[in-house]
Amino acid sequence: MKPKQIFEVALGVVTSVGGFLEVGSIATAAQAGAMFGFQLVWAVVLGTLCLIFLIEMSGRLAAISHHPLPAAVRERFGFHYFAMPLLAETVIDLLVLASEIGGVCLGLQLLTGVRFFYWAVPVAFIIWLLLWRGTFSIIEYGVSILGLTTVVFIVAAAKAHPGFHNIGAGFLPTLPGDHKAQYWFLAVSIIGATISPYLVNFYSSGAVEDKWSEKDLVPNRLTAGIGMSFGGTISIAVLVAAVMVFHSRAISIDTYEQIAMEVTAPLGIWGYRIFGIALIIACFGAALELSLDIAYVYAQGFGWRWSEDLQPIEASRFTLVYTIFIFAGCLPIMFGIDPLKLTLFSMAATALILPLIVFPFLIIMNDKRYLRNHTNSVFANAVVCFVILLAAAMAIVAIPLEILGGH
Amino acid sequence: MPLALFLAACSDNSQQVRETFVSWRKSLELLEQQRTERHVPETYVRQMVEAATRTLKQHRNKLRGDRAVNDLEAKIRQLGRGPGTQRNETEANL
B23 contacts in A (CB within 8 Å)? Predict the structure, then answer.
């Protein structure tokens, strides 16, 4: 690789790491660690493995066919099919966007003491303003690089001295003695939080915005593999820190504010401040990506002009979509809905819709008209199929069980 | 878990509520320890006390006279007696 490509890979890895962690992955990993110790590490690993394949595939699709994923699905399957994932993604993206706005507001509450719902409208306005005025590079690199503050969880986990053999044991699934419904519900939520469809769409649309071509295939593979692995490591660190601080004291997490203690216990008051800042940045970055993602999906699906680098007047319908979504997304938080409840529900619901989005994607990735001689390997197809079917099956069983109050 | 609490509210599962109250008491004990070591700011202590008070008020009727309620109440009062004007506000809320 040339030095320029090495720099691009490094930048891609840094932005992937910075953009990986968000309100859902923090909440689900912390809940899992507090409640089930290291027993759900496997869910983070499985989700991350699947995400690596999906991200690599979406970058490859964009580099070879110059199609972002929604445009390819619309073209290959027609509008009648496209309407289904469009509807599912609209609902899920809205729920997840509300959760991310809630995460930013909670970070602000932690740092200022002002209740989270007062922050909903100002935060939504700043997200909208940055999308209106900013460029794709600012959003892709600026916010994601700041997102590296989430490394604080790795420092907190390391300072707690968890013992690597304990973490290693969590790589193999084991059932808890009690609270089985909650165990499966959390496993589904972790996978849903990790394999966020918006990440896949955003990545492929970004690759088209950056005009990727065949020469970008190797950097794409490295970015997906290394970046997502580091991101998964941070998620595991959140879980590990929660085990060391909460599980060891038999504390379950009831509100998002409690999660701060997994950083303050090993790192003190600076840990508290960095946690607040990391939560704001990570959720703010995810909210920007989600808002853009939904605008990408609509614009690409309906054939409108789209690009974050265009002036709003040049892509007015694209701009209108994210404007509506941002302000709709801030409403649940403004009305005081608990961000933690909203997040857990959104993440589990995400796992339910994954087959609807991923299976057409897999068909396209095996279509030589789009990928020429760069179609998927049997191994990649098998891994993605296995994880998505497993997550959807778990969601179908675990969500009703949890709602019915099973143990 | 909030979902467990929500479900408990629907199914009147007093055992789940008791577990939540015990967990909250332990959480406040950890907070107290961190406050003593100056690992957390007072604004955080106040937020946690408020969150615990909300949970207690929401579900205390399901465990009337239970030890878990009394223990959590005592811990909230104890933390509320920290620096500043927190005491009266917390005790009034309880």
Answer: 250-252, 254
Cα(B46)–Cα(A157) distance, integer angstroms? 26
pLDDT at position A147: 78
pLDDT single digits (tens) B20-51: 999 999 999 999 999 999 999 999 999 999 99
Number of domains in chain B: 1
Q: pTM of the prediction?
A: 0.90
- In angstroms, the CA A306 to CA A309 distance is 9
Domain that holds residue B42: 36-94
Segment (H or E) for B66: none
Are A302 and A295 in contact, with CB atoms under 8 Å apart?
no
- Mutate one of A254, A338, A343 to test the B interface: name it (highest B CB count within 10 A): A254
Say if the Cβ atoms of A340 and B2 lie within 8 Å.
yes
Q: ipTM of this predicted complex? A: 0.85
Judge whether B31 lies within some domain.
Answer: no
A385-396: pLDDT as tens digits: 988 888 888 888
The C-alpha atoms of residue A70 and residue B40 are separated, in whole angstroms, by 46
Reduced to 3 states, what is the DSSP secondary structure of residue A334? Answer: helix
CATH number at residue A394: 1.20.1740.10
